[in-house]
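TA notes, week 10

Several of you asked for a full example with nothing omitted. So below is the full record: C-alpha cells for the whole chain, then the designed sequence directly under it. When grading your own attempts, check the secondary structure regions first.
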C-alpha cells in the first residue's frame, strides 16, 4: 500500500498521450517523454512484447528494456504470458498492472459515489454515500466507505485518491474556489481525507476530469479543439484548446454555466440572475416540471431528475415538455461556447444523456440555429454516462502522479504527422 509521502512531482504514473502529436525531445526531457510513450503503447496495445514496443516507438531495444524495468519496479506494468514467435526466443508480454488501484469519489450536493478503479478503468467496487450539509461529517462518511473498500481489497496496491468536485478547484491550494451548489465553503477536503486515509488526494473540477477521461480513453484522438459540458445540478464546462486542457487563472476557465443569458431570470446559486445553468440544468428541468404540472392532478411524481427522465420515457407529456424546455435552453446556450471557442466537437455528459435519442436532436437544432457562421461543431455525448466523473477522477490521479504539469508540451500544434520517439536516448 502506498502512502501520501509521494511528492507530486516525484511520483511516477500514467498519462494519456496522443502519439500523433509528439514533438522531438531535447536531451533534458527525452527520457521522460520516451517513458511516457512506452507506457502509452503498452496501454493501447496490451499485451505487448518488448520487441513490438521497440518497433512501435522507434526506440533502441536497450532503451526499451531500461524503461520497462523501471515501469515494472514502480508497479505500473506487469509481465504476463510468454508469446512464441516463428523465429527467435519467446517473449514475455507486458500489460498495465491491474493490481494497482485508485480510490475515487464523485461528490454531488446530496450524495457521493465512491468507487475503486484499476489502471484499465475497470470498477472493482462502487457505492452511493448520502451526504449532509456539514462538510466534515460528509467527508467522514466518504472516508468510511473508502476504508471499507480498501479493507476488502487489501491485496491491491493503492496509488492514491481522486475526487471529482461540482465546482472549481484552485490548482495551487487544492481548495474549492467556486461551488455554488455544494456550499462547503473553504473546508479543506483534500487535507481531511489525506489525514484519515494516509493516501495522496487529488481534487479536480468534474468537467475537467471528464474531459481528461475522454482524452485518456483515446476517444478524442485527432481532435485538437473541443468543449465538454456537464449537465447536473448545474452546468459545468471544460476546454480543450490546441490539444491542451485549459484551466487558466485559478482554474476558473470553462464556467459557462454562470454566464448570464437573461438578466430578468431566476437567481443563480452564484448570486447573479439569469445564468445559463438556471435555464439548462437538471434543477431547471425539475422546476419546469413543477410549473407545468396541473396542481389538482397526481403528476408530481418526479422527485429527482432520474424520476423525471423515466417519466419522459413512459410518455408523460408534462415531463417531456419540461425536459424539452431544458434541452432547448441547453442548445441555445451553446452559442456561448461556439462563439467564444469555435470547437470541433462539443461533448455533453450528465443526467440528460440517458434520454439522448429523444432530446439530443433538440439540442443539435438549437445549437445549429445560433451559429455565427459556418457549420456547427460535432455534438456528442460521453460514452460512460454517470461513470465518466469517476473514471475522470482516476485519470486525474494518473496524470498528476506522472509529473504531467511539469513536462514538456507534447501536443505539437498544426503537425498531424505521426512522429517516432527520440531514438537512441
Amino acid at each position: 500500500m502506498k502512502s501520501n509521502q509521494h511528492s507530486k512531482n516525484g511520483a511516477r504514473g500514467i498519462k494519456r498521450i496522443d502519439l500523433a502529436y509528439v514533438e522531438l525531445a531535447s536531451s533534458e526531457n527525452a527520457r521522460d517523454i520516451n517513458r511516457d510513450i512506452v507506457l502509452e503503447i503498452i496501454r493501447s496495445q496490451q499485451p505487448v512484447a518488448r520487441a513490438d514496443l521497440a518497433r512501435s516507438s522507434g526506440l533502441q531495444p536497450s532503451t526499451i528494456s531500461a524503461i520497462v524495468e523501471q515501469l515494472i519496479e514502480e508497479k505500473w506494468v506487469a509481465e504476463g504470458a510468454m508469446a512464441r514467435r516463428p523465429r527467435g526466443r519467446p517473449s514475455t508480454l507486458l500489460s498495465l498492472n491491474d493490481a494497482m488501484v485508485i480510490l475515487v469519489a464523485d461528490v454531488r450536493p446530496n450524495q457521493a459515489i465512491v468507487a475503486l478503479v484499476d489502471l484499465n478503468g475497470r470498477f472493482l467496487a462502487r457505492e452511493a454515500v448520502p451526504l449532509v450539509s456539514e462538510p466534515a461529517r460528509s467527508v467522514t462518511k466518504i472516508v468510511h466507505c473508502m476504508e471499507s473498500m480498501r479493507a476488502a481489497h487489501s491485496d491491491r496496491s493503492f496509488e492514491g485518491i481522486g475526487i471529482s468536485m461540482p465546482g472549481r478547484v484552485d490548482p495551487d491550494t487544492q481548495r474549492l474556489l467556486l461551488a455554488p451548489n455544494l456550499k462547503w465553503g473553504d473546508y479543506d477536503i483534500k487535507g481531511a481525507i489525506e489525514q484519515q486515509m494516509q493516501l495522496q488526494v487529488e481534487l479536480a473540477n468534474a468537467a475537467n476530469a471528464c474531459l481528461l477521461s475522454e482524452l485518456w480513453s483515446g476517444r478524442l484522438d485527432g481532435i485538437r479543439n473541443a468543449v465538454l459540458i456537464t449537465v447536473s445540478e448545474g452546468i459545468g464546462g471544460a476546454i480543450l484548446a490546441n490539444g491542451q486542457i485549459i484551466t487558466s487563472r485559478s482554474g476558473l476557465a470553462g464556467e459557462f454555466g454562470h454566464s448570464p443569458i437573461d438578466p430578468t431570470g431566476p437567481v443563480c446559486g452564484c448570486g447573479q440572475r439569469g445564468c445559463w445553468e438556471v435555464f439548462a440544468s437538471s434543477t431547471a428541468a425539475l422546476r419546469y416540471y413543477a410549473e407545468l404540472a396541473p396542481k389538482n392532478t397526481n403528476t408530481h411524481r418526479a422527485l429527482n431528475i432520474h424520476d423525471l427522465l423515466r417519466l419522459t420515457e413512459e410518455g408523460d407529456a408534462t415531463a417531456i415538455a419540461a425536459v424539452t424546455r431544458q434541452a432547448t435552453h441547453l442548445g441555445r446556450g451553446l452559442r456561448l461556447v461556439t462563439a467564444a471557442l469555435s470547437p470541433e466537437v462539443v461533448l455533453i455528459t450528465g443526467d440528460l444523456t440517458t434520454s439522448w435519442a429523444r432530446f439530443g436532436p433538440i439540442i443539435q437544432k438549437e445549437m445549429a440555429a445560433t451559429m455565427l457562421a459556418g457549420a456547427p461543431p460535432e455534438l456528442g455525448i460521453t460514452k460512460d454516462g454517470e461513470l465518466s466523473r469517476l473514471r475522470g477522477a482516476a485519470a486525474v490521479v494518473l496524470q498528476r502522479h506522472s509529473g504531467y504539469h511539469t513536462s514538456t508540451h507534447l501536443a505539437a500544434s498544426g503537425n498531424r504527422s505521426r512522429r517516432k520517439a527520440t531514438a537512441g536516448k
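The radius of gyration is 23 Å. Use that as a sanity check on your answer.
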